């Protein structure tokens, strides 16, 4: 035996078998007509080795183990507070909340001064409340999704902007009606008192709340685990995303009424752009609405056009 020489310099005696046993995660593909011979084929993708001759697909919420002999649950992820996608919005929201509280405190301190009165303090407080809610929604969007968080997301998602635009629309509409009436007669138009302005504003806001209430009735809030967005070709990188059961279309629909108020307010801002300087709030409102329209025109296609991601 010591004098035997094997091809390619092999020292060990060759095994007298047609096929070697397959490794874990590989199935035997028997050669036709030769029951003792087979080829070893690895189970690929999301398949695991169910027995020595076959591979099966794991359940949709699972992926194969490291050696592909069983299945394991796909890890569930959510947006974490320490993520840059969360830290930066929270930082900006905190700055906005501090600024809003400072302005509100200043208004309260000088509540009876002529400047605050002339600014329409009642609607100003409503506007500041809407801005405050716009910043608060940041924390709800980052919080771990559950039924309560998802419910508050639906309520406050469009409410902050709705309150803000309703107050601005009521302001610009009031200025427009005053000057239009002034061209016809010296009598003041109806519904320009602070109480009337608040009633109009809250009537506009109630439409948004009614829409949310209908949304709750038709589709109760719930959480889902989305495996589609992060289902990669490599099973080791697959992740499930825990999120509220709210589609992109539902988000836009929730914001749709706010967009309508914004466009209407912009129309009135254009109509009141030529008012005297004494009514100087009309021009800043106009500038605000023009820039807001540009932001919204950019936001909608970007929101729908971006690739799906866990952070979105």
From TrEMBL:
It comes from the Eukaryota. It is found in: Cell membrane. Its main location: membrane. The chain crosses the membrane at residues 85-111, 123-143, 155-176, 249-270, 282-304. The keyword Zinc does not apply. Keywords: Cell membrane, G-protein coupled receptor, Glycoprotein, Membrane, Receptor, Transducer, Transmembrane, Transmembrane helix. This is Metabotropic glutamate receptor 7. It comes from Ataeniobius toweri. The gene is GRM7_4.
């Amino acid at each position: 035996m010591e004098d035997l020489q094997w091809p390619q310099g092999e020292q060990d005696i060759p095994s007298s078998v047609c096929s070697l046993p397959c490794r874990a995660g590989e199935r035997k593909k028997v050669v036709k007509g030769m029951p003792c011979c087979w080829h070893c084929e690895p189970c690929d993708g999301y398949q695991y080795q169910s027995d020595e001759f076959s591979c099966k697909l794991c359940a949709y919420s699972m992926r194969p183990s490291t050696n592909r002999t069983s299945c394991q649950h796909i890890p569930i992820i959510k947006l974490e507070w320490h993520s840059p996608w969360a830290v930066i919005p929270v930082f900006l929201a905190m700055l906005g909340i501090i600024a809003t509280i400072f302005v509100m405190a200043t208004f309260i301190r000088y509540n009876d001064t002529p400047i605050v009165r002339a600014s329409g303090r009642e609607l100003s407080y409503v506007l500041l409340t809407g801005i405050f809610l716009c910043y608060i929604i940041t924390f709800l969007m980052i919080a771990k999704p559950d039924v309560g968080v998802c419910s508050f997301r639906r309520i406050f998602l469009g409410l902050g902007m709705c309150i803000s635009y309703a107050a601005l629309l009521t302001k610009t509409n009031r200025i427009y009606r005053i000057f239009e009436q002034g061209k016809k007669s010296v009598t003041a138009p109806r519904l320009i008192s602070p109480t009337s302005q608040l009633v109009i504003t809250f009537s506009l806001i109630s439409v948004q709340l009614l829409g949310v209430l209908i949304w709750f009735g038709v589709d109760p809030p719930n959480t889902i685990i989305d495996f589609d967005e992060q289902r990669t070709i490599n099973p080791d990188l697959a992740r499930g995303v825990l999120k509220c059961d709210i589609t992109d279309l539902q988000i836009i629909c929730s914001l749709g009424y706010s967009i309508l108020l914004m466009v209407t307010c912009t129309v009135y801002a254009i109509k009141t752009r030529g008012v005297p300087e004494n009514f100087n709030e009309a021009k800043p409102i106009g500038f605000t609405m023009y820039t807001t329209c540009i932001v919204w025109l950019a936001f909608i296609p970007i929101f729908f056009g971006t690739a799906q991601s866990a952070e979105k």
